[in-house]
From TrEMBL:
It comes from Marinomonas primoryensis. InterPro entries: Sig_transdc_resp-reg_C-effctor, Tscrpt_reg_LuxR_C, WH-like_DNA-bd_sf. This is HTH luxR-type domain-containing protein. GO terms for molecular function: DNA binding. GO terms for biological process: regulation of DNA-templated transcription. The keyword DNA-binding applies. Signal peptide: none annotated. Pfam families: GerE.
Length: 126
């Protein structure tokens, strides 16, 4: 699987926060995803994108990316993504399943005691 990787070469007229937003924008992340990555609110990231578009004289995200690459602010590479952590997790889960040897069914619900008037009886939780 291939992944786009962006490297900020030169900040130019952009602030450090705007450069970070631009990097993720060049990698194809959405505004909400960028906000989660940078621990900012979505509206703050939106303001950064507006500021970037004003400084680069562009009108949409695609134009921001193309202008930043053309101006030499960002270098975009396509890298082969390795799934090593996912493979390791799958191997770990398979080994655990082999050693535990469960039948895959859910455990029964616990029995609780219910007092109705003076007699005590047990019933399963529903």
């Amino acid at each position: 699987m291939k992944k786009i990787h962006a490297i900020i070469i030169e900040r130019g007229p952009l602030s450090p926060k705007e450069a970070a937003v631009l990097r993720y924008l060049c990698e194809g992340y959405l505004q909400k995803q960028i906000a989660l990555k940078l621990f900012r609110s979505q509206s703050t990231v939106g303001k950064h994108i507006e500021s970037i578009s004003r400084k680069l004289d562009s009108h949409c995200a695609a134009e921001i990316v193309s202008m930043s690459v053309a101006m030499g602010l960002v270098k975009v590479e396509i890298r082969e993504q390795t799934n090593t952590p996912i493979k390791a997790l799958l191997i770990f889960l398979i080994i655990n399943m082999l050693f535990i040897q469960t039948d895959g069914r859910r455990p029964p619900r616990p029995i609780r005691t219910v007092r109705i008037s003076r007699t005590i009886r047990t019933q399963r939780e529903s």
